[in-house]
Amino acid sequence: MAAIEAMAWTSSNLERGETWRDHAACSGRTNLFFPPRAERPQARARREAQARLLCAICPVQVPCREFARANHEYGFWGGESEEDRHLLGYTVAAPIGIRARHGR
Ligand code: SF4
What we know:
The structure is a single chain. The chain is globular. Helices cover 53% and strands 0% of the residues. It has a domain at 59-104. The longest helix is centred in the middle third of the chain and has 16 residues, at 41-56. The protein is mostly helical. Bound molecules: iron/sulfur cluster (SF4). Residues 24-26, 33, 54-55, 58, 60-61, 64, 77-78 line the site of iron/sulfur cluster (SF4). Iron/sulfur cluster is lined by residues 24-26, 33, 54-55, 58, 60-61, 64, 77-78.
């Protein structure tokens, strides 16, 4: 299903003046994608698992992921946490997950 929906995002969307954000499956679900203050590691893992499920069916996962990687974003974007991006070489200033896990 995700592959079919992902194919729906094409250059024709751009021609209509739409952006990938107009098709975000997470609209209104910001709480799943950015951590609250002092979030514990177990709560973070649960929150990110829910976010990952939503990203998996999102029609704009690829442009969302590319945006986050290019802009060194915090939070969960395109199926990736900032820690995932950091480990892939798309560094953010201070990856929150890594700091929490290693006490930095
Ligand atoms: S891929 Fe995930 S974070 Fe990006 S717009 Fe879709 S649901 Fe939101």
